[in-house]
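Hey, can you fold this one?
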Amino acid sequence: AHEALAWAAAEEGRFEEAERHCEECCALNPERFENWVNLGVCRQKSGHAAEAMEAYRRASALRPSAPEPYLQLGYLQQTMGQAAEAAEQYQMALKLDPECLEATLNLAILHDQAGQGEAAEELYQRATVLDPANRTAYLALGRLRAARQDYPAAAAAYGECLKADPRDEEAALHLALCLHRAGRSAEANGILTRFLQASPGSIDAVRLLATIALEQGQREEALRWHLVLIERGEAGPEVYHNAGLLSDELNAPEQALEYLRQSVALDPEFGEALVTMGHVLDELGKPEQARECWSRAVEANPELAAGYFLETRGAGPGERA
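Sure. Predicted structure:
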């Protein structure tokens, strides 16, 4: 009866009540392993960490070959910030059950948080063997591989996530970025384009397409994606500035000027936008307005503007480098 009452209370989140019923179960049958594990879980959920540890240790003493008490102790100590102690518990759980996914994954996270990338990566890889659809492990593998600039391997990990769920935005964005950094920009564009067809509302996918096109020197394509951001109301000063630069480079200075004015309206001290707007005005035969923009740029960002003019404007601020 007490066990059923404990489960009912726990299901409704009344863990202190469940704890009391579990204590009764332990008093009635102190040799039953499951009673102590259940008590430990309820105490843990109630915030009674020390008492929970004691219950798990009692369970472990009753059944030394069982990994569960060590797993629960590890999780408890991990949440308490006791990383070294938690790692020992997970290692003990894995010694008893090498295929324990939870211990594998949690130990990987501990190594990851400690900056021990190689050990973490090995365990995350092991987790994907134990659970081929484990998103957490694949995302972590992708991040660690990208951090050491192994972009093809990182892309493979993110690709597994996307294979499992084609609408996984995080995986799609990271996969595309890794492909781009691996020199496979056409594939990255394909990933993002297909993702946008399935999830047309993804602003981050549009931003990444704009960035890739910009870095690839594909001016018309870059401008197209910047205009999508503007049309969707997702443009900040930088987006308008880029749209202005691209429009000017595509021989549309009047349109460029409109975008640059929007950029400066959003951020009146955006030195780069003021410098660019000055050049466009100068191209349009408005030198006085151009000089006014350059003066404002110097006031807004002396280091950027002054350095720019000194390095690239030896014949005067009105001449393009």
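The two ends are 85 Å apart (CA to CA). Let me know if you want another pass with a different chain boundary.
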